[in-house]
Amino acid sequence: MTAPAVARRLGRLSALLMVPRTARWVVAGFIVLLVLQALLVQQGLQRLRDIGTMFDHVARTALPAQQHAHEMQRAAQARIMLLLRMLAQPDPFEREADAQAFVQEGLAFGRARDALLALALDDATQIQLRHIQQQAVALSQRQRAMSEALLQGRDDEARALLEQQRLFDVQRELVLELQALAQRMQQQAQADQQRALEAQRSAERIVLMLGASLFALGVAIGVAVTRLVARAERLLLLDKERAEAAACRDPLTGLYNRRGFEQARELLLRASPNGTPHSLLLIDLDHFKPVNDTAGHDAGDALLRRLAQLLRDQVRPQDIVARLGGDEFAVVLVGLDAAQATQVGQRIRDAVADFSFEWGGRTFRLGTSIGVATVLTGAAEAAWSHAMKAADEACYEAKRRGRGQVVGAADVATPATGVQASVA
Ligand SMILES: Nc1nc2c(ncn2[C@@H]2O[C@H](COP(=O)(O)OP(=O)(O)OP(=O)(O)O)[C@@H](O)[C@H]2O)c(=O)[nH]1
């Protein structure tokens, strides 16, 4: 399967697994990384093999060919020198020794030639070598005749052979040709070496480039993954915070619900210095039900929203306002004692009484019954639930007294420890 086909399949797989788009890019990046790595290994191995072959050729063919050509040249020169020496010295023993050396050099020439022929040479070299071989055979026959004459003391005949057969000229031509061969072999060896070195440099460049690309891609993928994870974490955190915030809010009015109210007042009590008074107002609407019954539930909802806003407007930003359920609200007046809280309660009651709600061409007016209790921070935890209970009972008492009242906990029962009474 080709690399793009693999990428397509993985892309489809990640889509099936609901992997986000960025993650799909990361997966694709990893695939490219793997493909590049495979390419790097394949290219590296291929280049190494090529370089090995080239150096092998230099070692097995080019350099030995050069050596053999030199050896042939040397042996050919040595043979003519030996003949000249034989001619120059009359001592038969010395001549005998030189004759033997002459034969040995002939053998050395033949060995070097055979070794050269055994190598894998190109066509031009083989043609050149064959030509040299023909020249060498012709020359060798004449040289052997001259050597025979000298060994038998027929020096004049030997001299005549030397001159008539142009042994020196033929010899020079052969040596020149052998020099050309040796030079050619040397150039080939150098060219082969050069090619091998260039291949090595090119392999280094490719490996470096691919390595750098791999590194850059790896870094890019690393950064993408890190960002992806960080983003996912941020979103999760945000979701969690939103869910927690939503769990603490009343969806209709946006005020705290009972849970949010409990959390907020807990925080408040923990943050306040001991002995600070905080007051609780429990507010229940009077005659809310008829709004629902006559104008409908939507009207009731709208009215609850408007009254929630009215409550917020009546208190300070630091005060805690909540809808505990139905038409029941609670307010914690931060730092206010019972007397001050009672005043705020009365202000709220009056504001609600003054408020008129228009719906479907009809006007509604409502009242409120409010119970007040006060808690001192540092009191036992149970003091808070006592205060809640006391405010609830006070609110009930307000209803009982005919509604539209603000009633303090002291008017209802003896307050528990830490709960201060308030007077309406
Ligand atoms: N529109 C609307 N009505 C609600 C919601 N929650 C509760 N209610 C209604 O609020 C009314 C509360 O009942 P009550 O407190 O007995 O009604 P009330 O007329 O105020 O009675 P009193 O408090 O005795 O004056 C009920 O009719 C509930 O159906 C709400 O979210 N939306």
UniProtKB/TrEMBL annotation:
Nucleotidyltransferase is among the record's keywords: yes
Swiss-Prot/TrEMBL catalytic activity: 2 GTP = 3',3'-c-di-GMP + 2 diphosphate
Coiled-coil annotated residue ranges, if any: 175-202
SUPFAM superfamilies: Nucleotide cyclase (SSF55073)
GO molecular function, one term: diguanylate cyclase activity
PROSITE patterns from the UniProt entry: GGDEF
GO cellular component, one term: plasma membrane
Enzyme's top EC category: transferase
Record key words, sorted: Coiled coil, Membrane, Nucleotidyltransferase, Transferase, Transmembrane, Transmembrane helix
Matching Gene3D superfamilies: 3.30.70.270
Transmembrane segments: 22-41, 206-230
One BP annotation, GO: negative regulation of bacterial-type flagellum-dependent cell motility
E.C. code: 2.7.7.65
The keyword Isomerase belongs to this UniProt entry's keyword annotation: no
One Pfam family it belongs to: GGDEF
Domain GGDEF: 276-411
NCBIfam families in the record: GGDEF
Protein name per Swiss-Prot or TrEMBL: diguanylate cyclase
Organism ancestry: Bacteria, Pseudomonadati, Pseudomonadota, Betaproteobacteria, Burkholderiales
